[in-house]
Every structure is written in C-alpha cells, then in structure tokens.
Amino acid sequence: MNTNFQRILDEIYEETLPLLGQGKVASYIPALAEVNPAQYGIAIQTLSGEAYQVGDANTPFSIQSISKVFTLTMVFGRVGEALWSRVGREPSGNAFNSLVQLETENGIPRNPFINAGALVCTDHLVSLASDPLLNIRNFVRELSNNPGVNFDESVASSERQTGFRNAALINLMKSFGNIENDVDEVLNIYFHQCALMMNCHDLARAFLFLANQGVNPWDHTRILTPSQAKRVNALMQVCGLYDDSGEFAFTVGLPGKSGVGGGIVAIIPNQLSICVWSPELNSRGTSLIGMKALELFTTKTGVSIF
Ligand code: GLU
Predict the structure, then answer these.
(1) Tens of pLDDT, residues 168-219
(2) Residue 64 Cα, ligand 1 centroid: separation in angstroms?
(3) Domains of the chain
(4) Is 256 touching ligand 1 by the criterion CB < 6 Å?
(5) Rounded Cα distance, 142 and 139, in Å
C-alpha cells in the first residue's frame, strides 16, 4: 500500500480538475443551485491521527444525504435489530427519491439511505428524543470534534418549500402505518439534518468511528457495537450511492455515502476516512469528480476492501 497520502491527493487533484464543468449542481433544491460549481476539496483523516488535504477542504457545504448515516447510527444504536421491521437492507436499484417500490412493498422502504428509509429513521428519532434537532446537532458535533457545526436555515427552508416528493413519500408510508409522528414535524427534522453544513475535514473526522469498530476516536466513547458498525458499513457498501452503488463498489471498492450537495465520504476499516466534495453531479446524483477522485485514490494507494 502506498501511504504517501499528500502526494497522492495532489496528483488526484491535478488529474481530475479538468473534469470541472462536466456535471451539474443539484437544482431541484433552489438553495443548492446557487452554490459555486467550481469548488473542489478532499480531506483524509487517519486513525493514527494524521490529516491531509487538497483544494477547498475547509469550505463548509450542505451535507444532504450524508446525514442519513448519522441518523441511522443514532437510531440503530438505540433500538438495535428492531429497526429492521420498519426498513429493509437491500439496494433499491432506483433513484433516491423514487415512489415506485414503496407502494408495492407496503410502505417498507428498501434501505435506510433512500429518502423513504431515512424518513423512517428520522421518525424513530422523533419518537425517541425530546429535542431531535438538538440531539442530531450535538451528535454530529461530537463525532466531528467540531463544536461549530450547524444547520443552514436557508437550505432547510428552501428544501421545505420544494420537498413535494419527500412529502409524498412520508404520506404514503403514513398511510401504511409506518410513520408514528406528525409528518410535518418529521419532514422539518429531515430537511434540517440534510442542511447541516460541514467541510471535508469535519466529515472525514465524523466518519472515523466507522473505521474504528464503532468507537469515536475523539472522546473514546462507544457509538455502535463492532457488529453494528460492520452493518452500517455494509449498508453503505450496497446502498450508499443509490443506483450508483454497484458502480462505486466496482470502481472504488470502499463503503461510502454520497449527498446531492456533492460530498462523498468513504472509509477504509481500521485505517482512515476520506471525504471528497465537488458540487457538480452526474445523472444519478453523485459527485462526478468525487467518484473519479475516489477511484484514483484506491488505485494509487492500492487499498480496497476487496
Ligand atoms: N435532501 C435531499 C432530498 O431529500 C437529499 C438527497 C441526497 O442527498 O441524496 O432530496
């Protein structure tokens, strides 16, 4: 394995920069359409305490669906295996916001990372926590070791005004009895978790517990059991990039999670976490440069879980 990470990051940056302009920023959430597309950063955090970066690694961005890993972790850590009676763990093979399977599968989403499954996790959290928003924010602050992490209210309200598809998903699940709480309350929490602003370093630090068998390396608290951490990683592997998950496994070979803000985080068990951010997306909603950068990372370092 080649561990000259700084040199590798510099090479990847130079080789992928010409791809800027080939993707499109997400426009279905108006606040995301306003993001400068020509931004690009990468950060690595190792379990042995080293950090590396290139480009705009210190610029906060909207983490969007990467937040689904945090809420899944919060709920799975508290309710355990009971979670799987309300959400599955199979890839969907459909777009992240598709309504198609939900009707035929009786309101049980395929997995916790498509929007419907994430809404079920958020609904669980609303049932469990007296102040779910504060809980999510504090949890992410602890994992990222950054007390400054916060929600961007303008992104949350932009998504609230245009989130008709998420409203359709949650109402359909409510009709099947798979949502316990008020749909508007759950949607409000969901739009806020997606509107968390974090930079590449924050996210690389925040995912390191998944490379560390469930223990937060910053304060040594156990977040998940080793078995639960393994399961979250397995879910990221098979469903973390929606209908790009097969391509991601094929070309990158690491558990990862994407968001339509252009971030992708991936982990190498027992070693490190890496976050790439570039807001221009491919046709399946994955960061175009992010995917290529991670492919080059595993090729150049010679690491993969396979
Ligand atoms: N907030 C976005 C939505 O619900 C998240 C999608 C994503 O990042 O994949 O549509």
Answers:
(1) 999 999 999 999 999 999 999 999 999 999 999 999 999 999 999 999 999 9
(2) 5
(3) 5-301 (3.40.710.10)
(4) no
(5) 5
